[in-house]
Amino acid sequence: MALKSIESSVREKSLRKKIHRTYFISGFDPRGAAHYKRIFQGDLKTQGFTLGQRITNGHITRWTITTNDRCLLNSHSEKISELCFLHWDDIARDNWPKSPITMTWKCLEFAYWYFFRGGFSAYYKLFPGVAICGAYPPTFLLLSFCISCVFASLIGSLDFINNQILHIKILILFLILFSSLYFFWRIANSIGIVWLARSIFFTHKLGLTSDKELRDRVSKFADQLSILEENEPSYKVNMVGHSSGSFVLTMLAAELHRRPNQINLCKRLSLITLGQNLANLGMYKRADYFRKDLEELGNLPKINWLDVTSREDLLCFAGVNPFTSCGLTAPFAKSYPRMKVIQLASLNKNFSRINLLFNQFEIHFNYLRMNCRHVDFIGLLINNK
Fold first, then answer.
1. Stated pTM of the model
2. Residue 136 CA neighbour count, 13 Å, CB half
3. CA of 39: how far to CAs of 32, 57, 66, 296, in Å?
4. What are phi and psi of 147, to 5 degrees?
5. Which of 168, 223, 293, 309 could form a disulfide with 164 if both were Cys (CB 3.0 to 4.6 A apart)?
6. Which pLDDT tens digit goes with each residue over 301-346?
7. Phi first, then psi: what are they for 321, rounded to 5°?
8. What are the DSSP calls for 295-330, one per residue?
């Protein structure tokens, strides 16, 4: 009896060591792991789970997903779930311009490329919604400047202003123009246009110049992830990339795929891209390294890859194959990655098409929320999928 008890105990401990691990890569977001922990913690709590103590090693922050519910504990006794957040938020902060003047110059630089160097037409051919969203920042800037100038001119035509000394008149008009532009800046910030612009400008920078900083980080991700999986191996590995995190995921998966000693890891690895915008980077002529990453993922061993997008999400390339959109031949006989187009917002009387246009920032994050039954990100974390 004692021997059987020992064997049972050993077997139980062995089973408990089986780890289901999810690596999450956020989009171009400076808020870091704490912000996403708050999002996931709230949804996990409704399911009876919590995130345990935070452990940060290098550029990976880990939380073990735990529960005090005995029924849930029994059903998950053989499987331990763990959420790992891969940090590139510091790179986002370093490329997060705050000055309206800096943003204006970057917007003008992007607008020239976008409207006069073929950017808009290239995006429009792939997915019109992305092309329209790319035009938001420069269009909003132009309208803001025109309206502010008209407003300043109307105020300047008043008798009170005309009767002032010239330099006082110029000062008043300048203050009116500045105040009006600042008002529009606040509007753009509140509805997510400034956030969108920063993300666009960063991707534009990656596409035109060297992406060495991000590539160095991806190499470190691969090193630290490999060490973690070697010392604390998981039986199932999911890697999830949201928004611009999708191209970081692609770089990382390709880096792991190139390493001969990570073949076993690649065989149990599953990739999930949510609201991906891979063509935003891949269509640039100088993004050769990124296209090589995609080509690497088209080689054997084939990594399981699910791509989830929505036509209501105008910040992603809904239903657009990452390979063909970046000018590459689609690999394998069947469609790769597996593409799933879902509904993120209801187009009923409570959510009109106009509301859809002005709620893109909110919609773009719906993939990660518990009420998105088509993705069930929380179910993925607790290994219910």
1. 0.90
2. 26
3. 12, 22, 16, 33
4. -65, -40
5. 168
6. 999 999 999 999 999 999 999 999 999 999 998 889 999 999 887 6
7. -65, 130
8. HHHTSSSPPEEEEEEETT-TTS-TT--HHHHTT-PP
* β-bridge pairing 55-57 and 60-66: antiparallel
Tokens 């209801």 label which residue? 346
Q: What is the Cα–Cα distance from 296 to 107, expressed in whole angstroms? A: 34
Cβ pair 74, 15 in contact under 8 A? no
CA distance 123 to 140: 19
* Cβ atoms 257, 297 nearer than 8 A: yes
Is the preceding peptide bond at 337 cis, omega within 30 degrees of 0? Answer: yes
Which amino acid is residue 182, in one-letter code?
Y
Q: How many Cβ atoms from other residues are within 10 Å of residue 324's Cβ? A: 12
Rounded CA Rg of the chain? 25
Q: Which two three-digit tokens encode residue 241?
A: 């990339």
Q: How far is CA 39 from the centre of its chain?
A: 15
Domain annotation for the chain: domains and CATH numbers: 18-94+213-381 (3.40.50), 100-206 (no CATH)
